[in-house]
Amino acid sequence: MAYLSAMKIFQDLSQEELKELERSISMVSCPAGRVFYVPGETGEVLFLLKKGRVQLYRLSPDGRKLTVKILEPMTFFGEMGILGQGMHDTFAEAMDDCLICVMSRRDVQHLLLSKPTVAMRICEEMAARLMERERQLEEVVFKGVLPRLAGLLLRLAGETDQVSGYSHQELGEMLGVYRETVTHALDQLKAMGLVEIHRKRIKLLHRDKLADIAKQ
What we know:
alpha+beta, single chain, elongated, Arc Repressor Mutant, subunit A, 11 strands, 42% helix, 2 domains, Jelly Rolls, 216 residues
């Protein structure tokens, strides 16, 4: 039950309410590469991510991935399939081996009607994701690859000085560019003395200078 209380959307629930919620949830293990849903598919469940990472993405006409969001543990996905339009608008794929908790449409609807604070938290997260998409679109239109990559590295690193667990291909999918383009841009940042590049790990050497590039 501790994992439920760690999820922001359930943080206002009491211990008794969390116990009741847990009884309506089933947990499954999913291997990396598992596709949970595709665009246009009707949603019947809400997914709660307990362990692993999940990539939400769209496909271009030529089959390239454009990452909408990388989900970390203790969040949810699949809400568009059971709320609003009733259909999913992205692909959702496990990047790692994942532990997923599943709630049925009926149980979710009952929860939202009986616990308005949960509905509010879900709306807050949906609004934040919409703002993130708008930022992505703005950057694609107005910024070059190097500033976008610098900004992405800073966001992925958070308060740390390194980005771990992402291949050049995955970074490219997050920026909507080819892997080779990311590799070239990383080499530029390395030549400027701003990053060190290792296998699936990038060390940020000068956050302030990367921030300046991200603003260009």
